[in-house]
Amino acid sequence: AQTVTQSQPEMSVQEAETVTLSCTYDTSENNYYLFWYKQPPSRQMILVIRQEAYKQQNATENRFSVNFQKAAKSFSLKISDSQLGDTAMYFCAFMKPHSAGGSQGNLIFGKGTKLSVKP
Amino acid sequence: ETGVTQTPRHLVMGMTNKKSLKCEQHLGHNAMYWYKQSAKKPLELMFVYNFKEQTENNSVPSRFSPECPNSSHLFLHLHTLQPEDSALYLCASSPRSTGNTEAFFGQGTRLTVV
Is B57 helix (H, G, I), strand (E, B) or coil? Predict the structure, then answer.
């Protein structure tokens, strides 16, 4: 069974600084997808970034980038130039490919990391 | 705003009550999902609907009964719940249940069972 572990329940960072959130996962699949979701106090889950396991290049979306280490089963999220609006819960999620019974709504989530950006 | 709307935002119900949660999307998506988010636990997938057909039920107790009358609407009917069912219930939708496309989430219904 797949599992997703986020070992940092809470983190804080100063505005404009850089912070890295950790995520590890366990799977026997070779092809899969990984996601980082953000859940602000409004409770809406918002996709931040995604990575296809078959792609070696790390995904990047503006100030957000990942460090995907497939062999180590590690998928960390780096937030550069942190902004107050980045304050939220961040969830790492795993999705199996459809060929293995997965779907993009059928996600396995970690417990989340609460990030606070301080002015 | 992701285009997925859930009502009500908050709900308090007694253990003998019957209530329903509603989810609506006008994104043209064909797959819809119910998730449960409890404190200090990972989000748990409850049900998956694809083209109005239920394709997954993750061992959810029968006191939770989903209904998907069309691809735009999804309900979760609640009956004789327990206090441990108190949680945030999130609805999501995606273009289809296959392939690598994004799932869009609603803002959830905060349910308290008293």
Answer: strand
Contact status of B99 with chain A (Cβ, < 8 Å): yes
What's the pLDDT at A99?
Answer: 62
Q: How many residues does chain B have?
A: 114
- Which residues in chain A (29-88) have CB-CB distances under 8 A to chain B? 33, 37, 42-47, 50, 52
Tell me the chain A residues in contact with residue B90 when contact means C-beta distances shorter than 8 Å: 43, 45
A103 touches B: beta carbon within 8 Å? yes
Cα-only R_g, chain A:
14
Query: What pLDDT, in 10s, does the model give residues A54-75?
Result: 888 999 999 999 999 999 999 9
Say what the alpha-carbon torsion angle A28, A32, A34, A39 is, to the nearest 10 degrees. -100
Q: Count the neighbouring beta carbons within 10 Å of the beta carbon of residue B58.
A: 13
Q: Which residue of A has its CA nearest to B105?
A: A45
CB-CB contact of A21 with A116 (8 Å): no
Question: A112 CB near a chain B CB, below 8 Å?
Answer: yes
Is the pLDDT confidence value at A98 over 70?
Answer: no
Work out the end-to-end distance of chain B between its first and last CA atoms, rounded to an integer number of angstroms: 31
Q: How far apart are CA A32 and CA B57, in angstroms?
A: 22
- Pick the residue from chain B with its C-alpha nearest to A31: B100
